[in-house]
Amino acid sequence: MAVYLVTGAAGFIGANYVHFLLEQEKDAQVVAVDYIGFAGNVANLDQVIDRITFEKADIADLEVMEALYRRYRPDYVVNFAAESHNDRAILGPSAFMRSNALGAQVMAECSRLVPVRSHVHVSTIEVYGELAAGDQWFTERSALNAKTPYSAAKAAGDQMMRAYMQTYPEMNIRMTHCANNYGPFQLPEKLIPLAVTNVLRGRKVPVYGDGLQSRDWLHVADHCAAVHRVLHAELGTTPAAAATDPGLLPIFDISARCEVTNLDIARLVVTELGLNASEWIEHIPDRPNHDRRYLINPAKIESQLGWVPVHNFAAGIAETVAWYVEHRSWWEQVIADKGELGFDWSQVGPAATPR
Ligand SMILES: NC(=O)c1ccc[n+]([C@@H]2O[C@H](COP(=O)([O-])OP(=O)(O)OC[C@H]3O[C@@H](n4cnc5c(N)ncnc54)[C@H](O)[C@@H]3O)[C@@H](O)[C@H]2O)c1
């Protein structure tokens, strides 16, 4: 029976991955780790709580994490844990540096001290920075060019993963960069669940600035399948040429090549709820330093590992909207626990303290 240690397991993607994993491998032993930061919600694991071991722990604490590794001896590790909200990172960058950079290194160090079969570090498209209007997409060979506190902290973690991959190749560290995810269990501070939960409470959907910021969208279930594929892939030895060519490192970019503006996402959600988009969307002041465009090319994971996304975007959005409609008690409890989740940048500035 394989032992999986999954961090960030009470967050959006981590919880979806734990559900996916237990569907794939009925007898997997899953150790779910989360320090229950702002986005953490143990209720995301309610349906599987009897089948997992939950550990409340901080991945940036080496002593605590090494003890967990020694207790459970994981075969496979997936590190989803991160502080993930760009708006919140502007108000308080330090927590992001701790989880996303130091936490990434501590997790790799634990996998070095207590060896595992493979270790996937989950990173993001955002480490590549903003895609120029005329450029087609980023690839694994693109330079890291993060410019927000969230993405810069993730990029710092990325650099450390690259250093571990090259220095300790026997460790089987892999890394993924994924497009924006949508699906169930996402905290309603992110665009899609914020839009649905606002409308269901009779409020308009706030869209930052002109809403023409363009994002690359992927269903969370496709992301989970891709991470699982990377975790179990037989990759062979990394060639020496990887020293100067990051495209040869065990790094995989994940996307459905689905580029949509934030304004169009808001329109889709409102329309899906049977309302008139022009009446239910309001443009509000943009957050500072908002990246305009992302898109990555998943050709490497498609050709080398045979992964392809299976979720159609329109159907996936419709299912996602329906999930939030049907799980009203889940998000009402989240809002009751955490307070209102939208940001109004005309009221808060970059120097403000986090709420
Ligand atoms: N959401 C997206 O669209 C997206 C896209 C690409 C990559 N990612 C990456 O995927 C991962 C998961 O993202 P998400 O959207 O599920 O985020 P999330 O904020 O919903 O969940 C992250 C979880 O990690 C936990 N966490 C944070 N710091 C921790 C620490 N130091 N120790 C233990 N737990 C900690 C939080 O409590 C939370 O439960 C992140 O690494 C993120 O960078 C997200």
Q: How would you sum up this structure, described in words?
A:
It is globular, with a radius of gyration of 19 Å. Helices cover 39% and strands 16% of the residues. The strands form three sheets. A seven-stranded parallel β-sheet has the order 3-2-1-4-5-6-10, sandwiched between helices. Strands 7-9-11 form a three-stranded mixed β-sheet. It contains twelve helices and twelve strands. The longest helix has 21 residues, at 93-113. The chain has a domain at 3-185 and 217-257 and 291-311: 3-Layer(aba) Sandwich (Rossmann fold). It has helices at 12-24, 62-72, 86-91, 93-113, 149-167, 191-200, 220-232, 262-272, 277-280, 299-305, 313-326, 328-338, and strands at residues 3-7, 29-34, 52-56, 76-79, 118-124, 173-178, 180-182, 205-208, 214-219, 251-254, 259-261, 281-284. By secondary structure, it is of the alpha/beta class. Helix 1 crosses helix 7 (220-232), helix 4 runs parallel beside helix 5 (149-167) and helix 6 runs parallel beside helix 8. It binds nicotinamide-adenine-dinucleotide.
